[in-house]
Amino acid sequence: MSSETSDNRNWKTWQDWTNLVLGVLLALTPLFAEFTQGSTWAIVMGIIIAVVALWALATASSKTSEWVQIIMSAFTFFTPWFGGFSTGSGAWWTWILSVVVVILAATTLSTSTESAPAQK
After folding, report:
1. 79-89: per-residue pLDDT in tens?
2. In 3-state terms, what secondary structure has residue 46?
3. Model pTM above 0.90
4. Is residue 101 classed exposed, middle or buried when 0-12, 13-18 and 19+ CB atoms within 10 A define those classes?
5. Is 32 exposed, middle or buried (0-12, 13-18, 19+ CB in 10 A)?
6. What backbone torsions phi and psi does residue 13 show, to the nearest 5 degrees?
7. CA 30 to CA 2: how far, in whole Å?
8. Which of 11, 42, 57, 94 has the fewest CB atoms found within 10 Å of its own CB?
9. Which residues contact 84 (CB under 8 A, 6 or more apart)?
10. pLDDT tens readout for residues 5-19
C-alpha cells in the first residue's frame, strides 16, 4: 500500500474510533458501576485500550496496533479476577467492553492490507 493511500486511511476506521470510546468508557466505569475493590484495574486498562486505539487510528494500515488491542483487551477480560471485583456490575462492564474491543480490533485486522503480498 502506498504511503499516500495509507495516510488517507488514518483516523478513519470506525472500529478504532469505537474502541477509543469503549476504552474511555471502561476507564470511567468506577463512576457508575459497582466495584467492591480493584477499580484501578478498570481505570488503567481503559486508558491503555484508549491509547492503543489512538495508535491504531494514527496508523490505520498497521496490523501491530490491532494485535496489541486484541492482546490488551483479552488481558482486560481477566482483570475482574485479578482485581477481586468479579461479583459486581463493574466486572460485567469490564467483560462486555473487552469482548467488544477484541471483536472490533479483529474485524479491523481482517480487513487490513498492510502485509498482503502483491499478486501478479
Report:
1. 999 999 999 99
2. helix
3. no
4. buried
5. exposed
6. -85, 120
7. 43
8. 11
9. 36, 37, 38
10. 445 567 878 999 999
